[in-house]
Design goal:
two-stranded antiparallel ribbon; four-stranded mixed beta sheet; single chain; alpha+beta; elongated
């Protein structure tokens, strides 16, 4: 879709009250710059996993009946789906906050995001997938450890092997 067509569609949606008009042009540019994929925390996690020798698919669409989902990182052979969730968009209990502007729009939208996350988790688990959900603020080593534990659950902890001959 051309930029002019997008701008006209946004203007019509604002006029119909489907979603709020931006407070100013700067805010509009800021919101349009938010990425759906390849966020900084996601890229850092992928790079760390790749350096460790893990191979994966990124942003792979999985069709689960009526639900279509695009995990950030997918280990197809192990059936592990990894999501790196943004604190605002997925309402992090530690950093998420209630919107103070246009709350009539944002509060239901964020609630729908949380409900969608629950539906996606249930659909993936019902299809035999392991789901790893990480917050964008989590330390990289913690995130890597969570993914490794899901991808290689059969790996013994080093302390469990010590003392065995």
């Amino acid at each position: 879709m051309r930029e002019i067509d997008r701008a006209q569609a946004r203007k019509r949606a604002h006029e119909r009250g489907i979603y709020p008009a931006p407070l100013n042009e700067g805010r509009s540019r800021n919101m349009q710059a938010n990425r759906r994929a390849d966020t900084k925390p996601e890229v850092a996690l992928r790079k760390a996993l790749h350096r460790m020798g893990f191979r994966y698919r990124k942003d792979l669409r999985l069709d689960l009946g009526d639900i279509k989902v695009r995990p950030d990182i997918v280990f197809t052979a192990k059936k592990v789906a990894v999501f790196v969730d943004g604190c605002f968009w997925h309402v992090c209990p530690e950093h998420g906050r209630q919107p103070t502007t246009n709350e009539w729009y944002w509060t239901p939208k964020l609630r729908r995001n949380m409900e969608r996350d629950r539906r996606v988790n249930a659909a993936l688990e019902a299809a035999g997938w392991r789901v790893v959900r990480l917050w964008e603020h989590e330390a990289l080593d913690t995130a890597v450890a969570a993914v490794v534990a899901a991808v290689k659950p059969e790996t013994e902890h080093p302390s469990e092997t010590s003392g065995k001959d």
